[in-house]
Design brief:
Layout: E1 7-12, H1 19-25, E2 27-29, H2 36-44, E3 50-55, E4 62-75, E5 99-114, H3 115-120, E6 138-141, H4 143-153
Parallel strand pairs: 1-3
Antiparallel strand pairs: 1-6, 2-5, 3-4, 4-5
This protein binds a DNA duplex (12 and 12 nucleotides) through loops.
DNA sequence: GCCAACGTTGGC
DNA sequence: GCCAACGTTGGC
């Protein structure tokens, strides 16, 4: 069976969870996503897929480094936790609504690839993240965009 | 802190 | 099933 690596972009607010947190922990469960489109993308993710780790809602939003999917989507336990911000009263154990993969650390860029950089080049103009009003926190990325961003960030 | 863009909710 | 009201995201 053919197995092709796919590429993704995942947003996180650095005050909540930054690339440095991931670097230190090596691995994290991507809990808290409460958007169906983002959830569906996470369910498509396969082990070894690569992820652009993006900082949102910060002074310089942009891609900070690379992660890798190290466990495929499974139910997000915070949906059942009444004390959690991510609690969803409509989710049941029999019928979980929300799923998350585990993401492992690969590398932190020496040079972050900022949203400004991405927006300034026509090469990236059809990326979802550069489109105005794109709030989607988990997005597919093409190989050409992934490779280019890595070449800009990792040097 | 503002606000545009977008997703979700709920009344009808 | 429509759509107005509301809540959230996230750049600036």
């Amino acid at each position: 069976m053919k197995k092709e690596i796919r590429y993704w972009l995942m947003k996180s607010e650095p005050t909540t969870y930054s690339i440095d947190h991931l670097k230190k922990e090596k691995k994290t469960s991507w809990e808290g996503v409460r958007n169906y489109q983002a959830r569906n993308f996470m369910q498509e993710m396969r082990t070894s897929d690569l992820v652009l780790f993006y900082h949102s809602n910060t002074t310089e939003p942009g891609v900070m480094g690379i992660g890798k999917i190290c466990k495929e989507a499974y139910p997000d336990h915070t949906q059942w936790d009444k004390k959690s911000d991510y609690y969803d009263p409509k989710a049941t154990k029999e019928n979980p609504r929300w799923f998350m993969p585990d993401v492992c650390f690969v590398k932190k860029f020496s040079t972050p690839v900022t949203l400004t950089t991405l927006k300034s080049s026509p090469f990236f103009k059809d990326m979802l993240v550069t489109q105005r009003g794109s709030r989607l926190s988990v997005q597919p990325v093409s190989k050409k965009h992934f490779d280019k961003i890595v070449s800009l960030g990792d040097r």
